[in-house]
Amino acid sequence: MESNRSFWASVAAGWLYAHAMRAVMKAWELVPSTIVTPMMQLTGPTVQLLEAAMGISRLTAYVWIAFVLITCGGLPPSIDSLPQLAKVSTWTSPSMRLLLKANPLYSFYFVTLSWCVDNGVTEMQFVVVSNLAAVATLAVGFGSDRELRRHACRIGQVAAFPKLVSSAAECTNYLSMLLLS
Question: Residue 70: its pLDDT value, please?
Answer without folding.
Answer: 81
